[in-house]
Amino acid sequence: MEIKRAVTNRRAVTLLFVFLGLFTILLGRMAYIQITKEVKGHDLVAMAEAKYNRSQVLESERGAILDRHGSVLAEDVPAYNVIAVLSDSQGPTQYVKDPQETAQKLAPLIGMEEGELEARLTDAKENGRFQIELGAGARNLTYEQKKEIEELNLPGILIQDTKRRYYPKQTFASHVIGHHNSEDSAYNMGLEASMNDYLHAEDGHIEYTSLGKGLSLGAGSDRVTLPKNGADIYTTLDTSIQAAMEQAMSQVEAEYEPEKMTAIAADPRTGEILAMSNRPSFNPNDYRNIENYLNLAVQDVVEPGSTMKMFTIAAAIEEGEFEDDSTYQSGRYEVDANSPPINDVNRSGWGEISYAEGFQRSSNVLMAKLVLERLGMERFYSYLKQFGFTEQTGIDLANEASSNVVEGRRADAARTAFGQNSTVTAIQMIQAATAIAGDGKMKKPYIIKEVVDENGDKLRETEPEVAGEPISEETAKHVRELLRGAVAEDHGTGKAYNIQGLEVAGKTGTAQIAEDGKYLSGHGQYLYSFLGMAPADNPKVVLYVSVTKPKLDDNESGNAPVSMIFNSVMQSSMTYMDLEPNEEELLQEAEEQGFEMPHLAGERVDKAAETIPGEVVVLGEGEHITDQQPAPGTKVLPGDRIVLRTDGEVKMPDMAGWSSRDVMKVAALLDLTPEFKGNGYLQSQSIAPGEPIEEQALLDAEFASNNERDKQEDHDQGEADANDEQTDEQLERAFEGVEEPVSEGDEEANTEAEQNDGDQSE
């Protein structure tokens, strides 16, 4: 018994030690797991979070880009992506069963070849892929495209909600606004790129702990990171003026097929850019087909031609070296023994003529005499610097080009004086012209009006800035009088720009183009331009237009395509900006006594109309408001006309007797291109009341005062005497012998431009 008891005890002790060992190992393992939180390399915390923690994205919205009145130029809109599920793990009807049939029906709707789509689906299926995307054509689809695909009822073809960047006005200030693509930043440009820090949005998210089957532990466990929407960029662009510019440039592009074009409209009182456009242009909604990435108005340098002469005489007048009735011998001028002579377009000259007539005839000889004999080279170059031609303007657009003002010999100064040899940018020409238009005060150009965050707080606001005062008020007025004469006088070179009922002041220009080391020659092989302002006595708009290498008829001058753009844009600008009687008083009264327009988008029309103390005009047959004019936040007077657009079909209203400002409200809401004539109140409209509206349709509107009807018919701009438009044959004689390239240090190259005797049209 004792032996048995001893054996039993030994076994019990052994089992006890085994049990204690196992228990120690278990405790050790538990302690290890507690400390390391890992099992076989798996992170237990991560596994628990993956099982019980949930996260939901709160989508943000990229900031919009708008014009000065709040009309949207770029915004985020709903979009849809198509994907194909290839695995049967989600059920027999939730995957692509037949790649051939799927490709046959789907390929035409996503812009893909049927064979390519079938091959992509088949390869992915054979490689065991769960799902795939279907290429660029299946991304960022519109609602209409989404519905078409859904109606096919294709197994395994799913549509995901997303957002895309949309440009509602399409080819509209495209190089200014630019393009944004979050998936392909190589195409990003314009304000979309340079202002991205403001426009950029950050998604938020909600994190919560789930008990399974969609049950949450409660709000106390939720961790919320709110989305941060991008700020809105308000530009100085005016949709009405920009639309007129785009329409005119498209017309010239179709008719004359120029190599390139540039146009800029600015308010000389502030420096605000009202419109800016280039050709070739592009539709940012179709960004992959961009041909020209350069904003030529800011990033291209050219010889300015005779438009530079307005700044040469401004310097001479300021220094007391120009008197209207002083005379000189026109035709030919000898610079020095080492340089070719400078000639006028009329090589035999117009005899001994006054300085005023010489400028209006665009005499190169007069410019050379002023700089070399009266003003002096040092003072002349000093004024070019004061006018801003030796440095960038600093406009708030990316990649501004640098000019090249050539200094050195007498011939360099003489040629620069009439716009040859030295190169400048179009935006420099605009900035310098604001000094002449603005009584000597030169305004820095800008295009960003303000940046407003989602809470309505202003993150940035641009104030007008005086960039310099190169000339006095008296000199500026004198120059404007001479510029008016260049347009209105019989011997002036700018008669094509003499708009009936509007006093335009300005200067024409024709510049040679250097290619492959030589200046081009031949009919139409020049850069034709006009730099003008209106009204001449108190300019409210400065406008520069250039057209390069247009295809002209044999008897047609370079003024034809340039004036087609300038006259249309200037007339529309003046009509829109300053035609209503006592407009300034009305605006002041609205500021003092008016009410602030609320944000009405999404509201019911009948409810909104009851809250607005004014005349309400509804465009469309829907029940809910989608857009409004005036924009939210605008001060208006009780009784002012309020125009609301709804989500239904829209037809043209009868606007007889409306003011130009009210007509512009309709044009802005319906995305129409306005073309206005006359002053006062609407007498006729090209789109009849009740007609359906097409996007970007042309709206011709004629205005007249209530007291007097305009009885004068539009005169024929093509009727101009020999002093108004000279032939290319004369220009060829002026450029005769010019073949060498312009390069610093090359004696022959530095003499060519002296042969330019003025504008082809002069």
TrEMBL record:
Compartments, record wording: Membrane
GO biological process entries: cell wall organization; peptidoglycan biosynthetic process
Pathway recorded for this protein: Cell wall biogenesis; peptidoglycan biosynthesis
Molecular functions per Gene Ontology: penicillin binding; serine-type D-Ala-D-Ala carboxypeptidase activity
Ranges of biased composition (kind: Acidic residues): 719-729, 737-762
Annotated PASTA domain residues: 591-648
Gene3D superfamilies xref list: DD-peptidase/beta-lactamase superfamily, Penicillin-binding protein 2a (Domain 2)
Biased composition, class Basic and acidic residues, residue ranges: 707-718
InterPro entries assigned to the protein according to its UniProt record, in alphabetical order: Beta-lactam/transpept (IPR050515), Beta-lactam/transpept-like (IPR012338), PASTA_dom (IPR005543), PBP_dimer (IPR005311), PBP_dimer_sf (IPR036138), PCN-bd_Tpept (IPR001460)
One matching Pfam family: Transpeptidase
UniProt keyword Transmembrane helix, yes or no: yes
EC numbers, comma separated: 3.4.16.4
Reaction catalysed by this enzyme: Preferential cleavage: (Ac)2-L-Lys-D-Ala-|-D-Ala. Also transpeptidation of peptidyl-alanyl moieties that are N-acyl substituents of D-alanine
Recorded GO CC terms: plasma membrane
Renumbered residue ranges of the record's region Disordered: 702-762
Keywords: Membrane, Transmembrane, Transmembrane helix
Coarse class of the protein's main subcellular location: membrane
Parts of the chain that traverse the membrane: 12-32
Family as reported in the entry's similarity comment: Belongs to the transpeptidase family.
Protein name as it appears in the record: serine-type D-Ala-D-Ala carboxypeptidase
Organism: Shouchella clausii (strain KSM-K16)
